[in-house]
Amino acid sequence: MTVHKASLIILVMFLWAVCFPLIVAGFAYAPHLTFATLRAFLAGAALVFIGLALGRPWPKSRPVWLAITGIGLGATTLGFLGMFMASEFVSPGIATVLANAQPLMAAALAAAVLGERLGIRGKAGLGLGFIGIIMIAAPEIGAPTAGGFGLGVAYILLAAVGITVSNVLIRALVGRVDALMAMGFQMLIGGLPLMLGAVLLEDPFSATFSPQFILILLAISLLGSSFAYWLWSEILKTTELSHANAFAFLVPGFGLAMGAIFFGETVGYIAGLGILVTLAGVALTSSDPPEARTAAAKGGKTDF
Question: Per residue in 150-188, is it b (16+ CB within 10 Å) or e — as a string?
Fold first, then answer.
């Protein structure tokens, strides 16, 4: 993997890591599902508008639209639902461990669906990355949680499964649809169930559109969603999912770094060592030799 490509993947992971504190900050101004709906629709509309302005082609064929719908239900509906709702019930440590099982699930699904195969080095890197995540989260795992722990775990696992499936579908759509239009429409489609939940379970009109909330909403929608997902889909055009997805182990490390820099939080020895272990795992997976991959993986083709 080239330094340029690795830098782009790291940028995506950093943008996704920034979303977590922005979500928490936005709760002061809007109910959970209402906030998630606004994020999805604003991000999706921005990408579709840019795509139309640039004359990008609309998605064609029923299988492609079904795949886009699947991405939307996975990445946006379940992904956003898990991120926005689980914070009430699960400590950050447990949420981090459960959410970051996603690269492991994605590797297994990519092997079954896309024919991607990791070599011994890649598999060892994924395992090492997950061990690092457990070490990072260890100080938080024993922290007290609010009632409804099981519900919080369910939210996180739903998000992880949804993002796993959506990543495989994004990889499978390589060369079959324009990335701007696909990512835009998946967010608009995925935002519909969130909107229904907001209308039925919340009071959307209770949202306070203060300058602070508008800034938070723009940042999380345009940078953490529109730009990040477009860039991610472009990366998956030339990078196997298992290799790119291993960088997701960096997200908790970015979170700790932002906490230390902006909020004066301290990073303990175990968490610090966990960051180093995670970095070693990512480096190991990203350096997995090409000869370990199958011909099917190189093409990333399915029957869409």
Answer: eebbbbbbbbbbbbbbbbbbbbbbbebbbbbbbbbbbbb
In a domain, 105, yes or no: yes
* 172-227 confidence digits (pLDDT tens): 888 889 999 999 999 999 999 999 999 999 999 999 999 999 999 999 999 999 99
Asked if residue 304 belongs to a domain, the reply is no
Number of compact structural domains in the chain: 1
Instruction: Residue 234: give the domain boundaries.
Output: 3-299
147 found inside a domain: yes
Q: pLDDT tens for residues 242-275? A: 788 778 877 777 776 776 666 666 667 877 787 7
Does any domain span residue 95?
Answer: yes
Q: What is the pTM of this model?
A: 0.80
Q: Return contacts of 290-294, CB within 8 angstroms, 24+ apart.
A: 291/119, 292/117, 292/118, 292/119, 292/120, 292/121, 292/122, 293/116, 293/117, 293/118, 293/119, 293/240, 294/115, 294/116, 294/117
